[in-house]
Here is the input.
Amino acid sequence: MKFRSIRFRLSAFMLAAVAIPLLLSMTITFLVTKQSLREQTTGENERLIFQGAANLENYLQSVNKASIAVYKDPHFLTNLTRIPNDYRAAAELYTSLDTIRNTVPGIVSVYMHSYEAGQSTLVTGSAPKRGQREHSYTEDVPYRSNALYIEASHPVHLYGFSSPGPAYGKDVKVFTLHRSIQNIPSPRRLADLSIDVSLDTVRSICGELYQGGSEQLYLLDATGVVIYSSNETLIGQKLENSDLISGINGEQKQGYFEADEAMHVYRKLNAELSGWTLVKQIPYETLYARATRLTEINAGITGAALSVAIIGTLLISIRITQPIRQLLRYMEKIQAGQLDVDIQVTSRDEIGMVFRRFRRMMDTVNNLILREYRLELANKTNQLKALQAQINPHFLYNTLQSVGTLALQHEVPRIYSLLSSLSRIMRYSMKDSTLVHLKDEAEHIRMYLDLQKERFDDQFDVIFDWEPGVLEEQVPKMILQPIVENYFKHGMDARLGRTLLRISGTRPAPGRLRLMIENTGLSIPHDRLEQLRSLLSCKPDAAVPEELAAPDKSVGLRNVLLRVRLHSGEAGRMDITNIEPHGVRVILDIKTEERE
Here is the structure.
């Protein structure tokens, strides 16, 4: 019932009218803002990563140029063959290597091994270290075709020397540029040159490319080893993030992809020089922070709007439905018989107009109907009381009980049984109720037929046929006896021999009860049957035609139908038909409560 009420429907409509547009607007705004932020952030970070990659390439180019400066020294290659016996050549080599160390900021040390002289030299900020060796410390470096290789980040090398200087006492991480020195155009390998470069410059360049705490930055070599990362603990280790590695391993030089709940923007550096890749990781939480904030603001506005809508809807619905409920309470009192209800009117709107019209209608009803109805009711009540005063029911019951006791004393149990049935019939007929269970009505008609059997000397048989459960249904009182009584008044005929009376009850549909009374007595003449059907078809409040209103025109049947319709409304029906070869069938359709 509450889901069909005006208050519920109005509240649901108002909430839907407010909530759906707001939620739709909030969703569209979030999606549009999210897409806009994605495009804007991607573009900005692509430009930022491009600039960072360009700075790194310039720095690596400066280190590379410093490494090939040895080819510009006309005496460098000659001095490689003259050491270690020529001290002047050794001094010039040291000067050249020290010049390389000081050319580019961030170079920690320069190591060179001469295959011609079998000597290794390490130049740091302190005195140079030299040593005679048959093989280079970096002999197993995998040089590329351009005789160049950049080793990923690692702790600074000692190159086989012990304590070359105070700077080596610290945990310094560097990357190393390895170059083989050849006597061009001859491919013969004269020496190996290794330049250790501090990560400070790389750290300085990369530190401007991300926001610490919310974003991550990775500088990876071609094998996935971390050259530099915002997470210092990963430097020098191989990155295990397979989604990130697979995302940058394509042929594109730059781009972006999504993985691990984050946006990744990357750019690859010069493959001929380093083959490094610069990757910036932007978590969704950071990427869509503004969209989330805007959504939270919109959610707050939506919540406030819904609160206002709920309060307003409740106030309006209460303003509308409360008077309607009050009017229903007035109607319930009037339905219960309290026709002088004091109807209070407080509002001046359409609801108040309905109240005033209803009050005037009830005044008219009281003036035109109640006086006559109450007068007639009082007259009927007085008549009933007068009749009841003539014979006290208790006196009659006690008298019948005394006669029954006397019958038992004289050993006439049949008379006692008939008197008991008569007493129970009278008690049932005077029972102060309009609705009874069908089992009580069936018991009453059984006792009535018991008396009739005594009267007609068993000239008829009776069959009761009740569908399971129908005896628990409620029906108007005294609806079977008038129909059965018509059988004894008009259908009983000794010429027909022993006849049959059948009374049955079924449920043709949920919430419906069908009572059928059949007899094999005399059929109703055709013209009389049509008169009965015309009488039963008259509306309850319509005047009965004079030719049908005579006392012998089966008014009892019409009375039964009227009481059935009072109980069941228009759903209550009575059908009368003749059956072959002779007999009458009466069917009553009654509305009942639906049961599972």
